[in-house]
Write a structure and sequence with these properties.
Blueprint lengths: L10 H42 E2 L3 E2 L3 H56 L3 H12 L3 H8 L3 H15 L4 H14 L21
Antiparallel strand pairs: 1-2
Helix pairs in contact: 1-2, 3-5, 4-5
Length: 201
Amino acid sequence: MTTTDASGESDGGQQAHGGRLLRRLAIPGLLVVMAFQTLATAFFFYDVIQDMLTPGLGFHLDLSVVMELVATLVLVIAIAIEVAVLRYLLDERERMQDALAIARGKLAEILEADFARWGLTAAEREVAWLAIKGFSIAEIAEIRGAKVGTVKAQLGAVYRKAGVSRRAELLGSLVEELLDGGVMPGAEGAAAPAGRVGEAV
């Protein structure tokens, strides 16, 4: 069950925000860890060489030198694994960006076709685009330099022509069209609504 705290942010919203933050920090964090590990590896390697070539003893190996050598090798292996993980993360991010671009392109095609089928005017098309992107009525009015009442009337016309009663239904119909169009993970890409979800009318 989703709960809402005093700030008005739901648990689900907080979790989603935390997930996005972790994804953004994953690659920089891994690079920082790899940098410290590389410095530690260089230090251990230098120390091992120094211990193996102790002045007066020449080349020698004892238990402490062997342990330092093993630790150095483990660090080298860890860095190699992290390089592979980093390459995977970069490839995955590129794949997701490509999928998002495909989904956005598909969404634009669907919207233009729907707008034409519904017979929207130029003003109604612009208002519809802004509403789908998640802007509130007040924001749409400010962007277009129009009155709030005018925007409400235009949105009402959009919903009436689209055969829906509110924004959530309009977005739901678009998602269904995207799924029916084959924009699915593993096919052309992953459907991802652009913008933020705004208030419903």
